Amino acid sequence: MQAVLGDRADLAQQAGWVAPQRAAARQWLGLALCVLVAAGLCALAVVIGRMPPFDRFVTDPLFFRRCLVAHVNFALIAWFYSFTSALVLLLPSERPAAWTARISPLAGAAGVLLMMVGAFAPGAEPILSNYIPTIDHPVFQAGQLAFGISVLLAVLDPRLLAATSRIEPLLPPAAAAGVRAGAAGLVLAAITFTISWLHQTPGLESGVHYELLFWGVGHVLQLVIVLVMLSVWIALLTPLLGEPPLSAASARALFTLMLVPWLFSPLLALEGTSSAAYRSGHTELMQWGIFPFVGIFLVLLVRALVRARREGRLVGTWKRDPAFAAFVTSAGLTVAGFVLGAMIRGSTTMVPAHYHASVGAVTVAFMAATPALLGVFGAQLESTRSRRLAGLQPILYGAGMACFAAGFALAGAHGMGRKAYGAEQATRSVAESAGLTIMGIGGFVAVAGGILFLGLAIAAWRNTSSDTRRARGPLAVQGEMLR
Predict the structure, then answer these.
(1) In sequence order, what are the residues at sequence separation of 6 or more whose Cβ sits closer than 8 angstroms to the Cβ of residue 310?
(2) Rounded CA gap, 219 and 131, in Å?
(3) What global pTM score does this model have?
(4) How far is 48 from 52, CA to CA, in rounded Å?
(5) Cα–Cα distance between 362 and 29 in angstroms, integer?
(6) Which residues contact 32 (CB under 8 A, 6 or more apart)?
(7) How many whole angstroms from its chain centre is CA 337?
(8) Beta bridge partners of residue 135, listed in sequence order
(9) Which of 15, 26, 150, 365 is deepest in the core (most CB within 10 A)?
(10) DSSP 8-state symbol, 378
(11) CB atoms < 10 A from the CB of 295, how many?
(12) Quick check: helix, strand or coil at residue 315?
């Protein structure tokens, strides 16, 4: 009896630990939604600046380059890794979160605020470096550094090593394994960046300096976000299938195998950022260290869906289930991103076509999972219409991003150069103009999908209840199927 009471006392103490961790996760999710607003406004300016006939009225490409840099940092860095930090803080652990993890959202918000101020500071020069563009201004770069440190504060926590816990899980263990792998990847990215900074060739022109500095860490961050996207796929499909699409052991093995080759990234950085090994090594890691594993996961997830359909576990209107539609949309954009990447020949708009499809795939998955995360915090969409719109929203956004990528691909296939804006952008053929017009239409559709997403998220947030019985979302699948 004393042992049982002791266990109950331990669990009660652990419940006290969970509350501040959930609060920090909620704050990270709130920050993720806020930066999407800023990212959308910057994206709208960039789309208008490239879309005929408006492009001829833009005579200051520097302004739009600042908008582009801000958009990329908000949409690809702040949004992705704020969302990831929220997932990490929702991992179960029988130990309390470190105080650094609990203050991490505040540090992240400070970093975002500094980036917003620095983006449009007088004399701020945009640097369109690949993977992580920046603005050559101390305030903006202080913001980037502060945000990066804040994410590390969130993920450097004992829960990364706790594969099992008596605390009720909110993610299927197979998905939690991917989130832990993503968090480990973030630590690896920080190590790679630090070594790259220490081994940077002095005296380089600013554009070359930042291109080389961010080359290694940018590649590792690509791995991280794919790991987290795969985790969200698993979490979305688990309620639909009635069981996880693959076992926790299989997921841990695959995620670990996916992460291991990237342990060479810091070693490549030790060669110096100007070395051929640093450049080509990270390129080969990206080419061969991501898509084969994504292909394996896709095969396993599709096979689980087919098996469930054959066994009659997918009933009713499963084809119209929001989780299924979001998975198909995200997976389709992922495959399109791989195909477009293989078609890249030179510095044309085929490059942004490739990465916008890939980025769109991640964003669709995260958007589809957001209502469930809001449910974890007691925020719900009450009306049937709102829930129906929440199911359609990722598809709308995904369709816009597909159109956006297709337009860029059409223009790039006919030689349209990338990183040209406003009056400096010269269209030489009908195909290039048509491609950019399609891109613009897709951009507006994607922005509309983003606005709908934010509207639904705000409506759910305003309907937050303190009743813990409501604090359950579709990601919080219960029972032995999670073991």
Answers:
(1) none
(2) 7
(3) 0.88
(4) 8
(5) 16
(6) 78, 79, 82, 83, 86
(7) 15
(8) 126
(9) 365
(10) T
(11) 13
(12) coil
Q: Are 344 and 351 in contact (CB under 8 A)?
A: yes
In angstroms, the Cα distances linking 141 to 111, 118, 126, 138, 144 are: 9, 8, 11, 5, 5
Q: Region 92-106: what's the mean pLDDT?
A: 82
Tens-digit pLDDT profile for residues 396-430: 999 999 999 998 888 888 766 665 554 455 555 67
The model's pLDDT over 349-388, given as tens digits with 9 standing for 90+, comes to 888 889 899 999 999 999 999 988 888 888 888 788 888 8
* Whole-number Cα distances in Å, 169 to 15, 164, 323, 324, 475: 13, 9, 20, 22, 9
Strand ranges (E), 218-330: none
DSSP string over 201-224: PTT--HHHHHHHHHHHHHHHHHHH
Q: Give the Cα separation of 34 and 229 in Å (integer).
A: 20
Q: Which residue in the block uniquely carries the two structure tokens 């879309």?
A: 51
DSSP state of 134: E
Residue 352: strand, helix, or coil: helix
Which residues, at least 6 apart from 457, have a Cβ–Cβ distance to it below 8 Å?
33, 370, 371, 374
Q: What are phi and psi of 273, to 5 degrees?
A: -70, -15
Neighbours of 2 (CB within 10 A): 6
First to last CA, the chain: 27
* Residue 100 clears pLDDT 90, i.e. is over it: no
Residue 405 has which token pair? Answer: 């990528």
d(CA 449, CA 352): 20
Tokens 């991917």 identify what position?
Answer: 178
